[in-house]
Specification:
216 residues; mainly alpha
Length: 216
């Protein structure tokens, strides 16, 4: 594995490690972005209104319980496509539940006395959500995004199963060719990428969450 990593040939070209990392990041952030677009508004709404929580959370957990490989095959059959779309569907199904659950938990967990005080100051429902509930819920919202990122980046290796790129290419091709250094290199790079992205979200959390919430 060390020889594979230190060989400059493996790092260059359209099929080199750098290119595979960029592809893997593209799959990850495309799925994470779409998951956030779907889950954040729903989580904010049901957390703010306290309506529909049971249905939304349970549907999200049911989607998370589906095996990613089986979900990928179902998506391939439904879309009649072997490419990026079924991979995106499978990854979004993994990304939505943690974002939805954490956003709902964060907003619904805001102290009712705080909301009553904001309402007593004349704030509208939208102002309470944007100026009170979201800032207080921010640590849990970021935690949900962080969890979704880890699940997506580790599962994005399935893209190689439908002839796409990414770091999963090394795992799948290495297993097929019994090239274990290549396979272990792919697994190691996915793990390191996950650790790096987790560290970035940890830094974002430290920079965006207010000092009062950190102290509490």
């Amino acid at each position: 594995m060390w020889q594979y990593l230190t060989d400059s040939y493996n790092w260059s070209g359209n099929e080199g490690i750098w290119a595979r990392i960029v592809q893997h990041l593209w799959y990850t952030f495309a799925a994470l972005g779409l998951s956030a677009v779907i889950a954040l508004p729903i989580g904010l709404r049901i957390g703010h209104t306290r309506r529909g929580a049971f249905l939304a959370i349970n549907l999200g957990n049911a989607a998370r319980a589906l095996p990613s490989l089986g979900l990928l095959m179902i998506a391939v059959l439904l879309t009649n496509d072997i490419g990026f779309l079924p991979v995106l569907i499978a990854l979004v199904a993994l990304g939505v539940p943690p974002i939805l659950a954490s956003t709902y938990a964060g907003v619904s967990g805001v102290d009712p006395a705080t909301i009553d005080a904001a309402r007593g100051m004349g704030m509208t429902g939208r102002e309470i959500l944007t100026k009170v509930e979201i800032p207080i819920a921010l640590p849990l919202i970021i935690s949900g995004l962080r969890s979704a990122t880890l699940q997506i980046v580790s599962t994005a290796t399935i893209a190689a199963l439908v002839s796409l790129g990414g770091l999963g290419r090394y795992v799948v091709d290495g297993l097929k060719l019994r090239d274990f250094p290549q396979m272990f290199t792919g697994a190691l790079l996915v793990a390191l990428l996950a650790i790096g992205l987790d560290a970035i979200f940890a830094a974002i959390s430290r920079l965006t969450v207010s000092e009062g919430l950190k102290a509490r």
